Amino acid sequence: MKRKGNQQQKSQHRWKRKLFAAVLLGLCFASLALMQSQYSRVVKLASLHYRPAPKPKIAFLFIARNRLPLDVVWHAFLQGEEDRFSILVHSRPGFVLNKATTRSVYFLNRQVNDSVQVDWGEASMIEAERILLRHALEEPFNERFVFLSDSCLPLYNFSYTYDYIMSTATSFVDSFADTKEGRYNPKMGPIIPVHNWRKGSQWVVLSRKHAEVVVKDNTVFPMFQLHCKRKSLPEFWRDRPLPVDVSKEHNCIPDEHYVQTLLAQEGLEEEITRRSLTHSSWDLSSSKDREASWMASCFSFHLVTDVDNIHYVTENRREWCSSKGKPSRCFLFARKFTRPAALRLLNNSALGASRDNM
Asked: What's the rounded mean pLDDT across residues 203-218?
């Protein structure tokens, strides 16, 4: 009887141990499941809160008459870089960039809806620039603002261009003291003293800070509207009052002075690199034949890409070009291309020849 009772006790102890082990194992599995559930929840919440920081963008701001004849080349340049750029176009009022007027999806409906009629040598040109900047500043990730014409092309690929522009906090503004008589109107004196009068190319690259300065300006711009006007031409004298003395007229071209003078007026010249990234002067050899040649699609790529310094005669200053602290070529863009010349540039894969040419 004793032996039988001992066997029953041992059997009960074994059963209890098995039950305890089963309960313990169940608790372990339940704990693991709970931990897995909590971990998944934490990961999900973290993924909702964490998003990769958007990349700073370059806003390409085109001033065009109507359509952009070189949009195919720009399309090749921009393709695959959609998170690093934005585009806005100022063309004549009422013009729409649709499938009938552009061959690139990057330009579809990118025209501003409050454009003005732009006349060369008038303040309407700088008004168009201000309109473009105002719209571009609405995009919070636009950090650089590049002004371009409808005949302008990039000389290198997008990555090289982006790194070049983003490598410095400065704006690129061709700016020098204008000492020649005839441009500055003394009537500006009470607001814009002559020592702040500057000249340069309108094809600037602005930082966001300087773009905001241009848009918020309500002092210099009105003075340009009133007193910076191009000299009247004889063919227009029938429609305008005949000047009393043509020799005393001020031949002021607003877009060649406005941004430069405004930044000087605001004391911001220490924050700019005083050169343009856009090549415009095609008479480097003082030869008319050279200018005609590139218009006829005989453009030599190295004519521009070999330039590594710029000489400013009025200031006796030579600007040696650099990027990231190292000597570099001066220009990223060039103007006045015909469509055949642009297509030749594209077919020769010049847009891909970036670092190899540096």
From this structure: 98
